[in-house]
Structures
1.
Amino acid sequence: MDPSDSPASALPPLGARILAFVAVLVGGLCGGLIGFGVVDLSCNGGCSATAAGVGLAGALLGAVGVAVVAVLTLRAMGEWRAGGRRRDR
């Protein structure tokens, strides 16, 4: 079977998916550090539990935000590549 006869896949390359996963992890880490840092600097006294909670919320928000952008980017990339393969036939 000729590879050009197979149906076009909109699946992005493995490298792009790995890069998107790493970007989500970095976004979550940065969100957590920013949330923790802001509360830790603005609080007087023992606010470590509050800072940790806000850091966790910041990590979740950062990761979800980056994940939305990564998924949209990967979908667009996959559709673009699949469309290019269809035009080449």
2.
Amino acid sequence: MSYLEVKGQREILCRIPYDSDLLLALKDLARRLDIKTGVFMLLGALKNATLLYYVQSEKKYTKITLDFPLELVSGFGNIAMMNDDLMVHAHVVLADKEGRCYGGHLAEGSKVFSCEAYIKELSPTVYRRYDQLTGLNLFDI
């Protein structure tokens, strides 16, 4: 197990714009605020969603497309640097009108109906690096 003690910095509340791509909006906000490392929580609703599921045995993602309105029941994620670029990593739980839940890794293509975000900036800066064992880009700590 590896770990790194971090310290909290700024805390931001944000309303993500209607019809924006949720993942890209989060990345844009982090860039504008110069947040290189952080954690966030999300609540709201999506017009549609694109999720990814990681197939461990194949070390690749499969896409899940949900083309209907969904409640954003829970969303959590983190912000880190990778190869001199910002990486926003989010997982969400979504519910349809019958209360059925869907979950996974948030991908580009998820359109916002409404979304409120809480972001906490952390220091020091954390980087991600490719991990051969899992095939994932994990914290380099």
